[in-house]
Amino acid sequence: MAGSSIMDTLFQRTLEDLIKGLRLQLIGESAFISKAMDEIRREIKSTDPHTKATALQKLSYLSSLYFYDMSFAAFHVVELMSSTRFAQKRIAYHAASHSFNESTPVLVLITNQLRKDLTSTNELEVSLALDCLARIATVDLARDLNPEIFTLLSSSKVFVRKKAIGVMLRVFEKYPDAARVCFKRLVENLESSDPQIVSAAVGVFCELASKDPKSYLPLAPEFYRILVDSKNNWVLIKVLKIFAKLALLEPRLAKRVVEPICDHMRRTGAKSLVFECIRTVVTSFTDYESAVKLAVVKIREFLVEDDPNLKYLALHALSIVAPNHLWAVLENKEVVIKFLSDLDPNIKLESLHLVMAMVSENNVVEISRVLLNYALKSDPEFCNEILGSILSTCCRNVYEIIIDFDWYVSLLGEMSRIPHCQKGDEIENQLIDIGLRVKDVRPELVQVGRGLLIDPALLGNPFLHKILSAAAWVSGEYVEFSRNPLELMEALLQPRTGLLPPSIRAVYIQSAFKVLVFCIHSYFSETEINASTSCPGNVVPPESELASEMECPEASESETHNASAIRKQEENFNPRVSNQSFKDLSEDYGEQIDTSCGQTSSLASLERNVFTDESIINMLNKIELAVGPLSGTHEVEILERARNLLCFIELIRQYLPNGLIQKEESLKMGEIEAYKIVELMQDAISDELGPVSVTAQERVPLPADLVLLENLADLEAVLPDIQPHLNSLSLGSPFLEETPGVPLPTHQNIEELEPTKESTSLLTEHRRRHGLYYLPSEKNDVSNDYPPANDLKSQDDAEDLVKLTEQSLVSKKKPNHAKPRPVVVKLDEGDLVPTAAKPQSKDDSLSDAVREVLFGNESNLSSSQNKPSDRSSSKNKGKEKLNVDTSELKKDLGIDKHHHRNSSSRKSKHQSHGKERRHRSSSDVGDQRDKNGEEGTKKSSHHHSRHKARPRTDAPSSVTPQTQVIPDFLL
After folding, report:
1. What whole-number distance in Å separates Cα of residue 71 and Cα of residue 73?
2. pTM of the model
3. 82 versus 571: which is more confidently predicted?
């Protein structure tokens, strides 16, 4: 075996050989790696440590670059960790750091090895163990190795000590109770004379304070001393990050800290430190105008720098200061707008954010025009960033900054025609939402929708199909505002709509149905008005408007006289929403229409004589020609709407004049029947839609007796009193419904009608898998997880459903107050998407432990002298200094003791002491701390070996500071 190991060592390829071989493999790299992996699997089992180390080194390289799994070598890594040679130990620790995780089975085997290396006299071995522990530490490892790390926190070797400080982040994360032992010693390192140790300690506290700054507020004096005295820029940057968090919790702290920060900003030449000072001021010290002005001056200096990194940082700082001090952005608006054409995409995005921060109701038109010009010249990605920013800013707070909605709707239409536009979903939502909320903009909205529908370039762009869907819906829903509904119908039925997805085509057909109903209803309305006038003839000749004026010369004069009056009555009469008869209409208008001749349509927006016999017949023919082929499509949504439209035309056509000579009586009766049908259909779609709260469904009370089930398998258990007929509920077959005079088929007859099993086995299997696409069957053994639609079995059920639908669609109208902008319907609540309520943040275990160390021990020194943290912190001079026995630190912390006690758990023990402390001066409190600290030090010097295992029993788990925790001299 030894010989074999020697041979493996002599002919083994090293990592350098492996890398050279990979670089020479122009093709067949995977084969070369597979061969190398086979060699590694064989070599790593060798008993020779050198062979094993080389194999493990190559495996780590391949795993890092090609993500090969090296879990099979975990045990060999543990074996190599115990090697006496440092080079081999280093390879093993690197492999463990790279491949081990909490689920690695052999992780429990390295505890003793780590403990041995952590206590080694060789600082390089200690460093290896600390580096590995910082990456792979688990709860068990952090708990078991906590004493060794605690010892290393006061090591005389700076190289080891600063790494031990860094390891505390991982240890605190995995084992928060370690803070009760190690936290005070960690604070001691802030007072070290070595800048490397101070830098490491400040870095740890910077990370800890970013998660829970409140727990580290008592350490503000130490951080302030470092801020004033330190000359290390990186240490100052981390301290500034800490103060940016603490100042938000204690406003009085800012008054003391803001001046040193401004001094650093004026004197330092390091750009990184200047920017950190700027960010600290604009985020946490915005109330100090002088500091903000100084920060803005420094930002302006960054903006004119040639370095793109400094430009980006300056723009980022302006975006932070913009919400509270917009003047800082306005002073630099020329430079900001210029950066929209910069080569760096990050700079362009930041400048775009700043431009949108300047938008208000006074300049939204100008800024939007400038941004659209930039969008036309930009690349697709930045173009859509611009469009998205405009859309999100304009719709903020229910279009708060929009005064002219006609302009904004036309702007949405222009956005849709930008070549690189991919914001179809957002534009669709806003077109529909504006139509629902703003009534005054609906005429312009229909015009914009018509322009989008007839634009052939939009049909071929899949990103804009949603916009076409919104345009079609708007055109059908508000067709009464269209000047030429017949042209709108042609746009909805144009042949190129076949390029659209089925869901969009379904909207087109439904809108065409609404337009058809409106056109026929308006046609009968004009005929009825003409019939009620004194002019001879019941039907206006379709040739021209001049013919009607020749027959009734007074018509043109009365039309001009009554135009304004009819416009005033427009709101009272709307063919889409009006249910009153035309006799009542003529009575309402009075003299306005009783003597007028010709066509006096109440729709001022419609072109004259647009609805004639010939135009209606042509429109019906076009619909049948365009929609007829869709009656055989496989798309359910298109099929349903197409057949509804065709059936309505078939029903109406028999009552319409077709150009042939008919008797006046039959024609009049036919028109009456057709009018009843159209009026009924008009009533069905006439209710105006309004905005719906996104939380509307949540406010619907759930019936107490409602049981929601996945299917109807246990319907008999839910409704035991109802005995359904055969197959009436399982498959909903229309062929088995009971009809008068026809009995239901018996089970035997059904079996006779079924085909043989041999001929239908494949069909049955296919039906079982794809039953959704089959028509209902009489067979009772075919599973169907989709319940049938509810059939209206009685007229009463139908009436109840109609009433319920009418009630749900009635919009609550608000009074229209006089405003300089159109009325925008806003809901009392639910306009914004609800955000999930964040649970009340509770201090985690680490915060509890830190607060217990900083607050709990201070208020109960006499009862906590024998506790682990006090005993562990009394072994050397530095620990005695932090154990509240040094006048400088106790004066800095300045904690009022009796306010940090838990009254429910300590009142009986310390009531008398608490009363005495209320009247003591700060010097008396400091003297008492000195005495208690010395006494606790003497009594607890011999208990260090058991400090980590004994829990605290009488100290509260979470103590919230109630009083000032920062000394007055700092505030």
Report:
1. 5
2. 0.64
3. 82
